[in-house]
Every structure is written in structure tokens, then in C-alpha cells.
Predict the structure of Guanylate kinase.
Amino acid sequence: MDNEKGLLIVLSGPSGVGKGTVRKKIFEDPSTSYKYSISMTTRNMREGEEDGVDYFFKTKAEFEELIKQDQFIEYAEYVGNYYGTPVEYVKNTMDDGYDVFLEIEVEGAKQVRKKFPDALFIFLAPPSLDDLRERLVGRGTESDEKIQSRVTEARKEVEMMNLYDYVVVNDEIDLAKQRIQSIVDAEHLKRERIEAKYRKMILEAKK
Ligand code: ADP
Ligand code: 5GP
């Protein structure tokens, strides 16, 4: 029997809410079978980051060339830098039957929704906007001005919650991780997905 196609899981939400932290926690868990799609970006590498692990770091010219070549499922300009999801890895990995996990900002998630309406969209929300600002300040990777523009952006992003299937509040990292894993597990048990598999089995049995 053919491989069942993997699910596309999109984790999004405001910058500083903890997407990266929760995503890392999910991928540290040896029982996680999803594949993480590493994004490309033109922003500077932060301390402790590695090219090809955290992101594929590109120059603006390289990124714009890839846009021209239609190499992204989605891309967005976010606080002065490009971020994008390479198309090839995602398609091939899903075709191989693996679930693919994207961690992207909301403009990009909107584009994915148009191209992959069957994907699973999860919005990671802060317990409050004050918590969000505190997390950005606590991370210590941005200037005050950048933090302010990220918080302004976050207000708009919270209003975009209605594009999502589920909302997970990131109060505690472990709880957020468990909630996301439960959502993905349940998605695999959706009647439509299971039914399609059984229909195929019945057809093959008739041959
Ligand atoms: P994002 O990827 O959404 O921009 P990060 O993962 O970089 O956000 O998290 C921003 C900051 O918030 C980091 O300093 C991180 O350690 C902290 N953080 C993440 N999740 C939580 C949480 N549940 N409680 C408290 N702090 C958190
Ligand atoms: P950071 O600079 O903090 O790593 O990321 C800034 C924002 O870009 C975060 O919200 C992060 O989730 C998002 N991001 C990371 N990769 C991608 C991507 O491939 N596409 C889009 N649209 N956003 C991304």
C-alpha cells in the first residue's frame, strides 16, 4: 500500500510568545516523529545559533533570487528581514509519509493556509501582552526599539487568531508542548483521514 501522506503542522503566533522554545521542547522528546522544516532567513545569526540547524542564513540577494525561482511555500518580511519556508523539503518529506512541522510568523501562516487548506494551524498565545513584553525583554536579543515594534506587531497578530484551528496558551512550556502533541494526535484520528485509508483498503481488497 502507498504511504499515507504526512500532515503539515503550522505553529504560529506573536514573536516572543515562545514558539521557538516550545518547538525545541517538542523536538527534544524522543517520541516526536514529526520533521522540523528549517527556515531560511536574512537576519543576523544570534549567539549560540548554527547555520543549517536553527536557520539557513542567507544574504538578501540570495533570498530574493530564491523568491524569483519560486523556492518558497511562503515567505514574509518581518521586522526588516526575510523569513521563508523552502518548498522542496516540505513536499518531499510529506510525500514520504512524515508529518512536517513549521514554526512561522502569522503572515506566512496565512499564505500556507491558502496553499495547504488541509494543514493543521495552531496559534500559540501568550497568557497576556505584559507576559509577551517580559519574555522579549528577558530574551535580551533585541534593542528597546525592536522590542516595541515586535510588541506592536504582536497586537495585530493576536487579532489574527481567527485563521487558526486551535489556540494553545503558552503558560508553561511543558503544558504547551503536551497540548500541541495531543492536538496532532487527535488530528490523525479525524474521521476523514481514517475513512480515506479504509476506502483504499476496501478498493484494494476487491482487486
Ligand atoms: P518566539 O520564538 O515565539 O519568538 P522564544 O521561544 O524566543 O519566542 O521565547 C521568547 C522568550 O520567552 C525566551 O526568553 C523564552 O525563554 C521565554 N519563554 C518561552 N516560553 C515561556 C514560558 N512558557 N514561560 C516563561 N517564559 C517563556
Ligand atoms: P526570530 O528572528 O525571533 O528567529 O523569528 C522572528 C519570527 O519569524 C518568529 O515569529 C518566527 O516564528 C518567524 N519565522 C521563522 N521562520 C519563518 C519562516 O520560514 N517563515 C515565516 N513567515 N516566519 C518565520
Q: What stands out?
A: Strands lie at 8-12, 35-36, 40-41, 56-57, 72-78, 81-86, 100-103, 120-125, 166-169. The chain has a mean pLDDT of 91.
